[in-house]
Amino acid sequence: MSSMSRREWLKAATVTPVVVVSGAPVEDGSRAWAAPAEKDVKAVVTQAAKFLASKQKDNGDLAPDPRVGPGVSALAVSALVRNGLADHPVVAKGLAFLEKQVKPDGGIYSQGLENYTTCLAIVTFKEANADKKYDKVIDAAQKYVRGLQIGDGKEESDVQFGGVGYGGKGRPDLSNTHFMVEALIAAGASKDDASVKKAIKFISRCQNLKSEFNEQPFASKAGPADEGGFVYNPLEQDNPKSEKRTAAGGLRSEGGMTYAGLKSFLYAGVGKDDPRVKAAIAWIRKNYTVTENPGLGSAGLFYYYSTFAKAMDALGEEPFVDAKGVKHDWRQELFDQLKKTQKADGSWTNANRAFLENAPELATAFALLAISYTTKK
After folding, report:
1. Residue 130 is part of which domain span?
2. Residue pLDDT, tens place only, 224-238
3. Beta carbons within 8 Å of 284's beta carbon, 6+ residues apart
4. How many Å apart are CA 152 and CA 146, to the nearest integer?
5. Is residue 314 part of a domain?
6. 304 by DSSP, 3-state: which?
7. Region 347-358: what's the mean pLDDT?
8. What's the pTM?
């Protein structure tokens, strides 16, 4: 798939040669770009699966903390299935555990975080639904998360309209909303689905882009470093003490959130010629990296890897060209970074404790999920 405005970026840029590593070639019209070699991916994934097996409880739960409930289990199972290990014992036990978390209201949760864990579980059950076993569970769960979306009683002009938080009708954020969009699309929702369209309204209001889609004050105060990127919570603009506010009164763009926003647009059928998509890609070109979460450094790094991989896969630009004209085989670069940082026991962990990524079960699940997108399906 051709990139959006790629010609414009390349016009004034001098392309820096990139050495092609071994693997399956992907043609971009002028040369071959490699994907990770199957044997290398298999070795990394096998070690990670052994680690997860060693941490899985007898009841199938992989969560290191009750606050994340079945979310970690859902992420790990989905990642293993996507990496070709649908028959692994961790998957069977994990799915059985998730089935026990299904509530009479259709939600799939344990101790709070109802939207987060239900959305992750929907995607996981869909990945493992080859025999249609989970059709009823998925249908009930997607109806449940629709009920959590902020809409009734709110004007469409309200910044919260269309968003969703962790549960109930609490404060919405981009992270929970992008998980909801992904879950609804996985469950079979179309781009014209009412809940998806409402979610895109909220997601648009999380972008540092003043436009007909975002009239929020912070969007008009974005400097060159933040324009086009996305923020976690647009309501932070009303908090003068927020560390995420800029000196000009805007909000800082974050890498994980920007890929989450772009992914949501692409999944929901927003075209590549749309100004929101163009602006997001332009920000990513300026901030392309696989070594940190732009705007947050090491915080949420493995979450970043998962949204990075999903968005780049959906974008389909092979290779990806950054703002300096450098071509990146993003699949190989991401895989190499994760392979390099995998620990001897097969796990990954983040020394930064933010977002519970110091728990190796969670970091490993995110890493494996990202790896599943580094191979061409």
Report:
1. 6-372
2. 999 999 999 999 999
3. 258, 259, 262
4. 12
5. yes
6. helix
7. 96
8. 0.90
